[in-house]
Amino acid sequence: MSTEIELKLQLTPKSARKLAAHPLLANIASQKQRLLNTYYDTPKLELHARRVAMRFRKKGWQWLCTVKSAEPASGGLAMRNEWEAPATPGIFDFSHVDADDFREYLDARSSQFEAIFTTDFRRQIWHVPFGESLIELAIDRGQIESKGRSTPICEIELELLSGRVEDIFTLTRKLQDNIELCPAIASKAERGYALYLDEPLRPFKSKPVLIDEKQTPIEAFRSIALGCLEHFQRNEKGLLTGSDPEFVHQARVALRRLRSAIKLFAPVLPPEFVNAYGKTWQTLAGALGDTRNWDVFLAETLPPIAEAFPDNRDIKRLRKAAQHRARSARKSVVGLLAVKEYPRLLLEFTAAVYTLGDTLPVPLNDFAREQIARHTKKARNLARRHAELTPEERHKMRIAFKKLRYTLEFMAPLLSPKKLTPYLAALSHLQDALGLINDHITANSLIAEALKGRPASPIHGWISGRHELLLCELPDALRTWLAQRLPS
């Protein structure tokens, strides 16, 4: 078995033609290949469910059988386990897989395997000595086909043959000086399955955090931060198409989780990392927040107002103005994703996360307990005096609960599920109540902006009444949460 460290980048056909003339490659001989691959799975797509890719590849006159553990990528970087050996197409021999349980899993299903999709592309390869490393740089151009459908391939893969992972990122920065490159997150296999299933683009929600008590806090942060980045990147295409407001919501949540993770782990992170990336995502997060506010107003806040005031002349004007501002806010998000600094940010952040060192190694369990206790204490102090809080302080309480929830979700694998589940349920209910209160505060501001100061007293009065009603219901949610035992 080998461990593959690979950076994948998308580019246009025009940029692909420019790459071959890049000064870094000018004096290095290249190889050209045509690679024809057929990917197999069971009728129930059991390999896909396990995030495993299995293919037969024709490389020149030789056929190879390859099995990969298709771990998700973040910032374009993937680290996968891979087994490859000469093979005869259609004969499923996994004797080269040296993980016994996994080999038995494949053998037990070999009689069920059928072709799912093919990838057919031409590859040009350079072996680039760079820094302390030898890096294979390959351009792939071709297509993926399944069930009569196809989608193009035009991408670069940089694979670390020997040396340091840092050198892959440094080489990519050099290439980005002349060529537009964007970190890609979906492998050819993932795209092939999507084509086979004819899957529509769907919003992507955060996945459970994968950490364990044997890790250091830095290692845990790396897993959490890259998971947040993957969460954001997988919603990026939906942000660009504007097909569903949920893409905005999920992308916003991803960045909020990422920024919360940086703050949470700041005590063990290098100060220069926190200074560099603590506020880096703020502009994009702000644009997503503006868009989300208008989406919520149009979908959730305005309909009951329109129902309460069916004859109010301002409702139509308000809806039209809100739709205009929602479109404008969405364009701002698309504009931020289009600037050349955005793909550089993805690459730089991924590089910085992967190259973090353990400057202050402490047991992860100790660090988790300390951070959970700190956030819990702050939230409890605000909750106990909720009756005397000003609107500004109540907003701080909402943020304190949000940070506590993220902290618990990040540290969930270290905590008792039996205690964590009811605690998070009570916390989620409380956050929903505080979120509705905040939505009505935000609505007043949005209405004033949309109507440009024109009086809307009946509407404002209705919102104020709903706001007061929600405030009356808040103490019950606070008491339910305060009665929960802190998970440990």
Explain what you see:
By secondary structure, the protein is an alpha+beta fold. The protein has two domains: 2-199, Hypothetical Protein Pfu-838710-001, CATH 2.40.320; 231-482, CHAD domain (Alpha solenoid), CATH 1.40.20. Helix content is 53%, strand content 19%. It has helices at residues 13-19, 46-49, 100-109, 165-176, 188-197, 217-233, 236-241, 245-264, 271-277, 282-308, 314-338, 341-354, 364-384, 391-410, 417-450, 457-482, and strands spanning 2-10, 30-41, 52-59, 62-69, 77-86, 114-130, 133-146, 149-162, 182-183. It has an eight-stranded antiparallel barrel with strand order 1-5-4-3-2-6-7-8. β7 (133-146) and β8 form a beta hairpin. The longest helix is centred in the C-terminal third of the chain and has 34 residues, at 417-450.
Return the CATH class of the largest domain: Mainly Alpha
How is the largest sheet built, in terms of strand order?
A: 1-5-4-3-2-6-7-8
> How many domain regions?
2
Could you name the CATH homologous superfamily of the largest domain?
A: CHAD domain
Task: Point out poorly predicted stretches.
Answer: none
Distance between the first and last residues' Cα: 38 Å
Give the overall silhouette. Answer: globular
Number of helices: 16
CATH fold-level name of the largest domain: CHAD domain
- Rounded to an integer in angstroms, the radius of gyration calculated over CA atoms is 26 Å
